[in-house]
Amino acid sequence: MTLRFQDLKGVYMFDLSEEKQKLLDATGNLLVLGGPGSGKTTIALLKAKKIIESGVLQSGQCILFLSFARSTISRVEQHANIVFMKSLTNHLEINTYHSFAWTILKSHGYLLCKKQLRLLPPHEAAALLANYDNKSAKEVEINRLFEQEGLTHFDLFACMCAKLLSRSNALSTILSETYPVIILDEFQDTNADEWALITQLGRKSNLIVLADAEQRIYDFRGADPARITQYITTFHPISFNFGNENNRSNGTDIVQFGNDLLTGNNKNKKYNNVECRYYPIREKNNQLILLKFAIIEACKRLRSETPKEWSIAVLLPSNSLMLTVSDFLEKTHKLKNGTIIPRIQHEVAIETAGPSIAALVIARLMEYGSIKQCNINQFLIDLCEHIRGRRGDKPPSQKDLILSTALLEYTKTGKITGKNRKVIIDESKRITERCNSLDFTGEVASDWIKVRDIISDATTDCIKQVRIDATYLRLLHKSSILNSSLSETWRRFDNYKGATEAVRNALTQEHFATSAKTWTGVNVMTIHKAKGKEFDEVIIYEGNFPGQRFIYDVEKIDQARLNLRVAITRAKKKATIFTPEGNSCCLL
Ligand SMILES: Nc1ncnc2c1ncn2[C@@H]1O[C@H](COP(=O)(O)OP(=O)(O)OP(=O)(O)O)[C@@H](O)[C@H]1O
């Protein structure tokens, strides 16, 4: 059976195998298994469409599609726009676990905690929890913050929501009446708390689980190989398996490479659409020029095939390498023979914690500077929040922790020891004095630059880092949201009073926005961020240095194998892997 859909961009044909047609007719709990690109997401949306079209849903009832990341959601939304007519989409809610759980906690959290609940955005949480390197001590503190102060950490969303549903039959009934069918995407990466929530949701709603055990890449946050079996034994679903059906990169050997990778059969085998390139490790970033050439080649290739809508993902193993690569692509290079290699315009999917806190540091200097009340203690407190929280979910290094503790101590006692720390205090004083003497005009961009330039003059690493992180706000496309929050405060008060809070709120809101992002052009991101997405071409670059390679720890080899498979199978047409010559990736 072939289904045909059309939107403004073109005509889409979906061939439905017998297994898929059976799934469309099945009822009750379902389990949909299949390799990368086998069409799990697509068939789930077609199933949702069929249910909606059958007219069984009443007004206010929805099919809920739950996924992990906002970026995945935007792809599912694009897909839904193809197969759904506009009039049907009000019966489909596509959401992240976080956003779904927070909505429930916001309205019913009072059943668990007497305090008014306040969301603890990841960067603030990281700063608050920086002293806890032990996992269980950290959990105790997260729970204390919730129970005593009403501060809700993202990690608590799923388990608190599960608790709410287990205690309140009424709430559980309301939810199942609102969402009689719930689709769970990327189920193999569900952690124990999410599973607890799903167990509650599945008591009264039908579940449609989409999974591929071999795409499990979130073991470090609690994904468990036993989860699919748990679902089977708890919910007795009808199972469907699309095996290695390949709709994403049909006609290529990309999925074959991914499957061979699992058994090691890829070694010494040639593939038409997966290429390994070996680069000599040279001084500085010189080997990055080879990567840049490869991206330019891919751009040319794709532009000649589909001038408007093409996409490339450059996938890196770490955030730091991602930023190095992004900086490199941003620059124009001149080769020894005089050839000019232009900058490559690209998008970067970077972690937001560092830039977000840097924005808060600058917003505070603008706020207090505009009323001549900048003071060193507040600056140091903000600086410490940046030092502690800038790595997001990862705790700060021991060195940073000790430094921030000493600086916070200074804000209470006025005492500090150590030459470097004294320089930080001197520079902080200078920064606050200079911000107090600035003439702010309300022209947000120029006021921002004035403050940022003052910070740029600092020589100490921790203050310089604020400046560096702020640079990435542009890459994160935060400029307009910052601009509007700051302009609004100036319009109301003729100064930036309240700007820090406005920026904080705006950034928190953004965290929940399901961005309608389309992944066109060149996109630089980590492998984990690429999950659930697809691109015409994928270029994977291993980097040189310890800690940046896919595999530098032999014990983690199985996880690296799954990561590499996920990365490769994001490609529709071609995948290229760059690995160092003489020290190449042992999976190749
Ligand atoms: N039956 C089909 N016929 C034609 N194209 C399809 C079909 N099903 C899916 N596709 C296309 O194949 C690509 C992959 O589909 P989809 O995202 O549904 O797969 P998936 O199994 O969810 O992938 P992954 O697990 O790798 O994220 C999409 O571009 C989709 O439009």
TrEMBL record:
Q: Which residues cross the membrane?
A: none
Question: What is one process in the GO biological process aspect for this record?
Answer: recombinational repair
- What InterPro entries does the record tag this protein with? DNA_helicase_UvrD-like_C, DNA_helicase_UvrD/REP, P-loop_NTPase, UvrD-like_ATP-bd
Annotated UvrD-like helicase ATP-binding domain ranges read: 13-250
- Database matches in PROSITE patterns: UVRD_HELICASE_ATP_BIND
- Listed GO MF terms: 3'-5' DNA helicase activity; ATP binding; ATP hydrolysis activity; DNA binding
Protein EC: 5.6.2.4
Keyword list (alphabetical) reads: ATP-binding, Helicase, Hydrolase, Isomerase, Nucleotide-binding
At the top of the EC hierarchy, this enzyme's class is: isomerase
- On whether Hydrolase is a keyword of this UniProt record, the answer is yes
Q: Where does ATP bind?
A: 34-41
Q: What catalytic reaction does the record list?
A: Couples ATP hydrolysis with the unwinding of duplex DNA by translocating in the 3'-5' direction; ATP + H2O = ADP + phosphate + H(+)
Q: Does the keyword Isomerase apply?
A: yes
Q: Which PANTHER family match?
A: ATP-DEPENDENT DNA HELICASE SRS2, UVRD / RECB / PCRA DNA HELICASE FAMILY MEMBER
Q: What is this protein called?
A: DNA 3'-5' helicase
Organism of origin: Acetonema longum DSM 6540
